[in-house]
Amino acid sequence: MTAALPAALAALLLLTGCGGGSAASEADASASPTSSTRSSSAAPSTTAPPTPTQQELPGGGTRVFPEHRLVGFSGGPGSPALGPMTGDLAAATERLRQQAAPYGADRTVLPVIELIATTAHPFPTPTGLYATAADDAVVQQYLDAARAAGGILLLGIQPGTGDFLPAVQQYERWLTEPDVGVALDPEWAVDPGEVPGDVFGSTTGAELNSVSAYLDGLVTTHRLPQKVMLYHQLHAQIVTGQEVMVDRPGIAVVKSVDGIGAAADKVGTYQRVMAGTPPFVHAGFKLFYEEDTRSGPLMEPAEVLALLPQPEYVLYE
What start and end residues bound the annotated signal peptide (predicted)? Predict the structure, then answer.
């Protein structure tokens, strides 16, 4: 029996192809891939990560100006006082197209929907900042409307007693999209202890720079087209220290002058507020369908385009 066991074992090894010198060579071969795998995993990878694709604006291209003139409607859900972009967004978008058409003689019109996303209130809110932020469903609804119009969405920010930068950063998931920018409204940025609406808020060139730097970083990281950073200004004291503002390649900065009233008054406000504006900041002009017409007819597009400097953004509220 002791002699038969080696013979049976030899037969079994022969049947499985693992006998004699073949077993030794296969053992060597099986060890070789293991050794190769270990050395391979230890070596640093030489494969570069994929480069994100350069994204473009609606209609193509990566620069906002001078290729385009922006024409927009402001608004918010269920808030007609914020502008015409409310209620039936498809109907409001069609009205925007009609309003924007006369501005397209010398440039391609890029429609703008300016959603008042973070809204200031004259009472404390759960955040303690006298402001509330729009939820994702609302932002998506307005972004869908902007895309249906072939335009861009600007997220309007009224920070209450908070600062602009953290209020903007709340919307980072949206700001990594190629067709979403911001519209900062410093009239509604007040100091702690003050109440929005009781006093005029204000901001500084340094604070605007902090937002610009943040947005420019998103543009670089995600290979986005230029992103619009707009700030509203009703009178000269609302924004101070503009001389320190920095021109960043990924950001198209626009100042929207928000004077209210008869045409002559609006033009005077426009000239005063635009004086001293940094040369890289593009001019914007706002018209009010209700407030302006209490003092006379609404300014016609030809009158708006005759202003100096010529507005590159025209907003209707």
Answer: 1-23
d(CA 83, CA 183): 14
Reported CATH class of domain 68-316 = alpha beta
* pLDDT tens per residue, range 27-84: 343 444 333 333 344 455 566 666 679 999 999 999 999 999 999 999 999 889 899 9
Q: Given CA atoms 112, 115, 121, 124 in this order, what sign does their dihedral have?
A: negative
DSSP conformation class of 265: H
Contact (CB, 8 A) for 182 and 169: no
Report the alpha-carbon distance of residue 114 to residue 281 in Å, rounded: 19
**pTM of the predicted model as reported, rounded to 2 decimal places:** 0.84
Q: Are 87 and 76 in contact (CB under 8 A)?
A: no
Q: How much is the average pLDDT of 184-205?
A: 97
- The two most distant CA atoms of the chain are separated, in Å, by 120
State how far the Cα of 215 lies from the Cα of 229, in Å rounded to an integer.
8
Looking at residue 86, the DSSP 8-state letter turns out to be -
How do strand 152-157 and strand 227-233 relate by DSSP bridges? unpaired
Tell me how far apart the alpha carbons of residues 154 and 116 are, in angstroms, rounded to a whole number.
8
Measured CA distances, 148 to 33, 83, 144, 205, 293 (Å)? 56, 19, 6, 34, 30
Q: Kindly give, in sequence order, each residue whose CB lies less than 8 Å from that of residue 197, ignoring residues fewer than 6 positions away.
A: 120, 122, 188
Query: Contact at 8 Å (CB) between 146 and 85?
Result: no
For residue 189, what are its two tokens? 């940025």
DSSP annotation string for 99-113: HHGGGGSSSEEEEEE
What's the rounded Cα separation, in Å, for the pair 239 and 254? 13
